[in-house]
Amino acid sequence: MLLSFVVHTYSLRYWFPATVMLGTAPVYLLFWGAWRILSTLLPVRLYHTLDDRLYCIYQSMVLFFFENYTGVEIIIYGDIPKKKENVIYMSNHQCTADWIIADMLAIRQSALGHVRYVLKDGLKWLPLYGWYFSQHGGIYVKRSAKFNQEAMMKKLVSQNQSGAPMYLVIFPEGTRYNPELKNVITDSQAFATKEGLAVLRHTLTPRMKASHIALETMRGHLDAVYDVTVAYEGTLGADRQRKPAPSMPEFLCKECPRVHIHFERVHVKEIPPEPHFFRRWLHERFEIKDRFAMAIDWVGYGYAAAILLGGYMGYKRKGSVMSLMAGLVFGGLSAFGAYNISNKPTDIKVSLFASGLLAVVMGTRYKKSGKLLPAGIMTILSLLMVFRLLLVMVV
Predict the structure, then answer these.
(1) How far is CA 67 from the centre of its chain?
(2) CA separation, residue 371 to residues 290, 316, 381 (Å)
(3) Do 348 and 389 touch, CB atoms closer than 8 A?
(4) R_g (Cα) of the chain, nearest Å
(5) Measured over all CA atoms, what is the biggest interatomic distance in the chain, rounded to whole angstroms?
(6) What's phi and psi for 143, nearest 5 deg?
(7) Are 259 and 73 in contact (CB under 8 A)?
(8) Residues near 283 by beta carbon (within 8 Å), at least 6 away in sequence
(9) 317: buried, middle or exposed (CB in 10 Å: 19+, 13-18, 0-12)?
(10) Are the beta carbons of 360 and 381 closer than 8 angstroms?
(11) In which element (H, E) is residue 66 found?
């Protein structure tokens, strides 16, 4: 009985917001359809203005559930411009929640209504949403040899001529990075090797066609490209191996406590127009994403920060240069160890050495002084760190 109640309560975390969002979609489309019919006699720009406003209202409700209802903490590295711009939003792709992340950034510029997506062709059959996304300015594309360049250019030119504001969301990888789909990752890495490009470990090799066509077709209409990298906290297992990013239902069930977003604005003039150089530029951007999206050892970095803070506090309170030096040495070693683990989960040598030695040093001090701060606390933290690292070795 109790287990059934717990399971039922947990499922409501998803079904309640899903019911509200899907239940209001037909009403929204009814209002939009009425406006679409009425606007046939009006200027196209006026249609886009109200269409964007209606879209903003509905998506604001969607964002309420994904950000406020879930209580997820959004951590942004970089400065998002305050004014609206015509941009291409370019991001790594891990899960369906990535579409919501784009909306989260757009609403912070009051540009939510301007969001248009470049989507896989199969999504046009999605009930209700599939057809509407195309009407709102979205573009459906097929991958590889079936990609229709002329159709995409025609849609973009039409948007430009109508004067529609543009926040075009593109995922250059073409499909999601899922650590469980080994064949997709292997094929992506083989393609990079074939093209003489750096092999990526935490993202897929980006495909340039859609991004290049969008950029060159709208170059005179665009202000910038927003280069965005998303990392979902909780996608790292106890064995330091990557796990799949949360799906939309899992996100709504509050299974993702934090989302880390690296944001960089790149002026259009800085991006090479020639296809060959654009490919190189795009891949270099994904090399940066690959480093940010790697399995970051947040615990290790937090431990290093605690050591540095402890050394500084010892110097601040008692003028102890020895405490400051110890904090810098052990904190620096721990940070370096965390960096090594982030790049290679089994490379624990530096971290294990730093935490083990600090546990001995601080344990000896605690035995002599009997003081919990800082010796006792640092001894406990260091021992926990040693235990964690040894657990990684065993697993």
Answers:
(1) 14
(2) 44, 18, 15
(3) yes
(4) 25
(5) 87
(6) -90, 160
(7) yes
(8) 192, 197, 198, 205, 206
(9) exposed
(10) no
(11) none
Tokens of 303: 């431990």
**Six-digit token pair at 8?**
């039922």
Long-range contacts of 309-313 (CB under 8 A, 24+ apart): 310/374, 310/378, 313/374
Residue 197 tokens, joined:
């490009």
Please classify residue 307 by burial: count the beta carbons closer than 10 Å to its beta carbon, then call 0-12 exposed, 13-18 middle and 19+ buried: buried
The pTM of this model reads 0.76
- Contact yes or no for 299/282 (Cβ under 8 A): no
Beta-carbon contacts of residue 181 (< 8 Å; ≥ 6 apart): none
Nearest to 17, CA basis, from 250, 257, 246: 250
Q: Per the structure block, which two tokens stand in for 391?
A: 């657990």
- 217-248 CB burial, b ≥16 within 10 A, e <16: bbeebbbbbbbbbbbbbebbeeebebebbbeb
Instruction: Specify whether the CB–CB gap between 350 and 336 falls below 8 A.
Output: yes
**CB-CB neighbours of 101 under 10 Å:** 23
What SS3 state is found at 243?
Answer: coil
Query: 319 with 313: CB under 8 angstroms?
Result: no
With CA atoms as reference, report the closest residue to 13 among 96, 72, 56.
Answer: 72
Tokens matching residue 374? 């800082």
* Structural contact between residues 169 and 115, judged by C-beta atoms closer than 8 angstroms: yes
In tens digits, the chain (395 residues) has pLDDT values of 443 434 444 566 778 888 888 888 888 888 888 888 888 888 888 888 889 999 999 999 999 999 999 889 999 989 999 899 999 999 999 999 999 999 999 999 999 999 999 998 888 888 878 888 888 989 999 877 678 889 899 999 988 888 889 999 999 998 999 999 999 999 999 999 999 999 998 899 999 999 999 999 999 999 999 999 999 988 866 566 778 999 888 898 888 889 999 999 999 999 999 999 999 999 999 998 887 766 677 788 899 999 999 888 888 888 888 888 989 999 999 999 988 887 666 788 999 999 999 999 999 988 888 888 778 889 999 999 998 888 866 55
Scan for tokens 């690292």, then name that residue.
389
Residue type, 30: L
Angle at 58 between CA 55 and CA 61, to 5 degrees: 145
Which residue type sits at 324? L
The token pair at 314 is: 């010892």
